[in-house]
Backbone:
């Protein structure tokens, strides 16, 4: 029997599904992964692993995993597929997609991805090689996940920023440059349950151990809120009013950073005037947070020597998510907490390497200004929403689904779906999205398991690889890391391998400079001074050296702007709380508040009929969105989809703990197991999203029970913010509870 070998790599999708970044050790024996452990030498995670990673052997070698390309042979929804070769699969995709291009234009294919995993690089490469401008998170109303926050930060700072938990420093907490944040606001996020958006959730706990105080903004009671010095338990969707109220306190009491504002902030006078519309008493009435708590939290944040904000998707899902993020970003700006130790540090792709494009500038860097300009002319939603045209490369998902139905201004005829269970996961008003997508002529799904989307829509299914089965690079902030292929399962290929092959077929001239995939990695890694092999040989990661990619106070040192002058990468060179970019795009240049579309204020009659606010989508350490329900170790810990109900509410409806009930509204009803809990207020219920049951029949109409268990069946959509980014109603939908008669 051969000896065990240990390979170091980086966890990212597929497998744990997550946003990734953790260093892992893969134990391989006889060509098979037998164990996985955290890499204690990795600066990001320092040896820690989540349950999803630790269950990876069950995921990779699951009996139901798709390990060969499949072709549909029955009608859509019948669940009849036969194995085919990769050559036949690639040939079929090439022909069918080229047929659509020849008849309708390349723009008639959309390229749909899920959340921020190891897919942004591969799917944009394929999308643009095919000639389509339509890269999209299809079904996710308003792209209500991270993009609204990115847009707000870009408009204010000209860059993105994250809470400083020492992650940019190789010595981490021992580095003498770093100081722990005196205060961290955790806004709409229980950070301990996941690793969102280039951020390891337990860094918050690491900082707490070093003295950091928590101000928690969350309608629920969680582990983190119970340890906060202030818990702002707001009404869901009213975050914008809360941020403006805190700005009101800080500005009117004169406890902002006057020196920083004078030198580095543009539009302070206009912001001061705007926040007068949000006195604390009014904000308390809107948010249901007591006025004295708002004042105390604002004072503690403003008076801290250094303070940071770690936020979550609920910010994006507010009615005007970009504006809410704008208001929260202003809190950082006027208190002078930008790019200081223990504050909100500017975050750029590690060592200047772009693997996942977060902005139009990065897309231009990768593909050239001429291509992006031409694609913008036909990008769905770009003529409606200037921010869609000018920030990031997304097509607008709500307009895409409407255009599938209307065929105007041009038809949508095909979809390439990758890392994305649209029907069982991200699509609001899921049945509406399914009926629309049935009209498509050709659908490719790249995935690892059958799910409601593969069963309902796929013509071709291509089997993807987990992260121990793939080579890849990651530069989402820090560190720059590599993923190392150390095993092969079936005929599975990585997303990069699949898309590289298809891109070469569609764009042979543009792709000919890369003989193999590693050549592309080497080119993208060039700013770091390393090749792909170099990066792997030196341990698989590299931290940034001093310069544009490493904190601190780069705006003072001329390290942010292309002209090397001090300042931020904005038109004024300052942090623009009055955003000239937003003004140019026809948006309000100052933050504002919008009431949720369903509420006692917006829809009083609907509120009488459906009196409970339904919060969905809180993160779990066991599942990632709609994944992992078939993994025994994980499902054992949470066998059923539950809904958390306050004891008073349960008594009112006559519901007992553990009872199966319906959540319902005018859109329909879904099943949940009741969990009586003090985690929610009497006016609210909370339930997880993405539930379908792989043990149930997969063919239509059952689709693994998705219409009985997927909460997005009763979440309204399409619905987006004024900017086109934000506004999905995943946290603010009204509902009621009812008994299941049978």
Residues:
């Amino acid at each position: 029997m051969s000896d065990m070998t240990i390979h170091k790599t980086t966890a990212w999708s597929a497998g744990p599904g997550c946003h990734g970044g953790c260093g892992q050790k893969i134990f391989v024996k006889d060509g098979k992964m037998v164990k996985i452990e955290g890499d204690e030498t990795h600066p990001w995670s320092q040896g820690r692993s989540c349950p999803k990673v630790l269950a990876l052997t069950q995921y990779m070698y699951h009996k139901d995993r798709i390990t060969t390309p499949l072709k549909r042979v029955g009608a859509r929804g019948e669940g009849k597929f036969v194995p085919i070769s990769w050559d036949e699969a690639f040939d079929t995709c090439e022909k069918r997609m080229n047929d659509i291009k020849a008849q309708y234009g390349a723009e008639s294919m959309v390229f749909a991805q899920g959340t921020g995993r190891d897919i942004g690089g591969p799917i944009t490469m394929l999308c643009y090689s095919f000639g389509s401008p339509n890269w999209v998170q299809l079904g996710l109303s308003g792209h209500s996940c991270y993009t609204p926050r990115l847009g707000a930060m870009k408009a204010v700072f000209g860059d993105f920023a994250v809470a400083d938990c020492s992650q940019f420093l190789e010595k981490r907490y021992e580095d003498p440059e770093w100081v722990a944040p005196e205060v961290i606001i955790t806004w709409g996020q229980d950070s301990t349950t996941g690793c969102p958006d280039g951020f390891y959730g337990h860094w918050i706990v690491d900082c707490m151990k070093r003295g950091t105080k928590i101000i928690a903004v969350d309608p629920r009671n969680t582990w983190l809120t119970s340890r906060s010095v202030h818990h702002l338990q707001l009404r869901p969707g009213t975050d914008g009013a809360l941020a403006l109220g805190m700005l009101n306190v800080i500005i009117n009491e004169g406890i902002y950073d006057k020196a920083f504002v004078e030198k580095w902030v543009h539009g302070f006078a206009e912001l001061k005037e705007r926040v007068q519309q949000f006195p604390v008493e009014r904000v308390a009435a809107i948010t249901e947070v007591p006025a004295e708590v708002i004042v105390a939290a604002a004072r503690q944040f403003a008076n801290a020597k250094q303070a940071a904000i770690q936020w979550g998707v609920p910010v994006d899902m507010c009615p005007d998510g970009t504006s809410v993020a704008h208001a929260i970003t202003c809190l950082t700006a006027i208190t002078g907490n930008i790019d200081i130790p223990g504050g909100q540090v500017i975050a750029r792709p590690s060592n200047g390497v772009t693997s996942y494009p977060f902005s139009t500038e990065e897309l231009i860097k990768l593909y050239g200004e001429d291509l992006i300009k031409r694609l913008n002319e036909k990008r769905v939603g770009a003529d409606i929403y200037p921010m869609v045209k000018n920030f990031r490369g997304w097509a607008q998902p709500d307009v895409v689904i409407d255009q599938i139905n209307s065929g105007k201004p041009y038809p949508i005829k095909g979809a390439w779906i990758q890392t994305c269970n649209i029907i069982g996961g991200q699509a609001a008003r899921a049945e509406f999205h399914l009926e629309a997508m049935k009209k498509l002529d050709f659908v490719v799904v790249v995935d690892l398991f059958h799910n409601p989307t593969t069963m309902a829509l796929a013509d071709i299914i291509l089997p993807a690889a987990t992260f121990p089965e793939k080579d890849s690079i990651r530069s989402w902030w820090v560190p720059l890391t590599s993923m190392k292929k150390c095993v092969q399962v079936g005929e599975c290929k990585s997303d990069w391998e699949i898309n590289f092959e298809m891109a070469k077929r569609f764009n042979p001239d543009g792709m000919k400079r890369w003989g193999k995939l590693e050549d592309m990695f080497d080119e993208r890694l060039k700013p770091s001074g390393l090749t792909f092999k170099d990066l792997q040989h030196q341990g698989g990661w590299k931290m940034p050296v001093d310069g544009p990619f490493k904190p601190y106070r780069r705006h003072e040192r001329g390290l942010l702007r292309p002209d090397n002058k001090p300042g931020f990468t904005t038109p004024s060179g300052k942090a623009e709380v009055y955003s000239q970019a937003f003004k140019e795009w026809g948006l309000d240049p100052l933050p504002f508040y919008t009431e949720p579309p369903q509420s006692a204020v917006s829809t009083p009659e609907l509120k009488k009929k459906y009196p409970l606010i339904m919060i969905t989508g809180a993160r779990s350490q066991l599942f990632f969105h709609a994944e992992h329900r078939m993994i025994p170790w994980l499902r054992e810990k949470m066998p059923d989809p539950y809904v958390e109900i306050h004891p008073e509410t349960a008594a009112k409806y006559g519901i007992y703990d553990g009872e199966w009930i319906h959540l319902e509204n005018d859109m329909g009803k879904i099943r949940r197991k009741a969990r009586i809990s003090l985690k929610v207020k009497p006016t609210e219920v909370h339930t997880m999203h993405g539930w379908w049951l792989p043990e149930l029949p997969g063919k239509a109409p059952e689709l693994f029970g998705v219409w009985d268990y997927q909460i997005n069946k009763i979440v309204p959509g399409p619905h987006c913010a004024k900017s086109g980014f934000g506004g999905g109603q995943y946290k603010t939908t009204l509902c009621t509870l009812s008994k299941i008669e049978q």
